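Intended use. Records like the one below are meant for learning the mapping from a protein sequence to its folded structure. Do not use them to infer anything beyond what is encoded.
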Amino acid sequence: TSVTGVQTCALPICPVCQHGRVSPSILWFRRDLRLGDHPALLAAAAEGPVLPLFVIDPALWGPSGDVRRAFLLRTLRALDASLREHGPGLVVRSGRPESVVPALVAEVGAQAVHVSADFGPYGAARDARVADALGSVPLVPTGSPYAVAPGRVLTGDGGPYKVFTPFHKAWANHGWRAPAESDPAAVDWLGAPSEELPDEPDVSGVDLPEAGEAAARARWEAWRGTPYDDVRDRPDLDATSRLSPDLRWGTLHPRTILAGLDARRHHDAVFRKELAWREFYAHVLHAWPDSAREYFKPELQGLPYVTGRERDRRLAAWTEGRTGFPIVDAGMRQLLAEGWMHNRVRMIVASFLVKDLHVEWTHGARHFMRHLVDGDLASNQHNWQWVAGCGTDAAPYFRIFNPTTQGRKFDPDGAYVRRWIPELTDPTPGEYPEPIVDHAEQRAATLEAYQLLRRHGG
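Structure written out for the chain above:
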């Protein structure tokens, strides 16, 4: 008997039994952990019964920090609960996808495997391996985690954009489809033997947001209409959308957000531009996959950075929020406490690490990816390169954030700093460290290093 109650054969799922049941398709979830506005789900359901699958891939699971693992597990449990409202629930398997997915196809007699397209360096290579291993069974990509798929918007010469402003204009002119009207209640969901999800790592000290599609939509509905441009740079007001984890894991599609924005309204246009930055960096990474680890501008690899014990000392002070610069330390402590950091503060702390402490950007990018619940390879790596001056920006070498003036401007009453550094209000001497460096001196040293590199052809 199948999960729908139809008498078929003794197999858990019958490809075509004596009653003529069609073969199922597998919907392989990755960065699309939702049931609404899901083009790949629609494509799979159009072919017949659908088996929902998530693969715990050791190549991705291993390098992830505990915060990201915990949030992903909560998101998967929420997805499983939603699926159980309509069928048997999520099938979980662990291992290399090029082995796991074909094995499940053979086990259930699937006619196709449906996915949302992955344009990241690892994801694209993984999907090529899976498609090859599937042989005659097609791996069918429909939709992506983006409003406009990477590679779709090109320059007049047919190449990828390297600069955001012309990309943004072309992206907006290209437009995007309306949200897909997928109805999970109308799908014939099937099941198969499933592994248990791993135990959640201990992140009891981290205040994570509620996970899952329903929570993501609730966040969006509660926030939409906020006067974004008035508050987006104010960490003390905590008035940004907080949708980045939802976009990272696909519990909310950017197209759903864009459909609720009106670009004729100033604040909506500003927020839409921030979504375009996310899409721009995905396009850049797709066109230049080596930029995930290497300098987008390799000529800037010659900049001097501290190494050895001194680098480790400075990096430790930065990661622990003990640099003696309140806005920097507040941001780093927020990261450890919430797995998230306000975007303005991300730029401040990144600039401080690279241009005040002279620690190479790759160390900061790695720390962010370990601790951010919204850690996205394209956005993270390229925002770090933007700050470091080696990314897509045209002339960024002179951009050095002054942590003191940034704090005064964007946390004018000190509310954000006091929240994360309570010892600043404690009169006990020595409770809070003295500044680890002199900003004016380090700024001058950074500018001199950039100019020297430029003079020597860097």
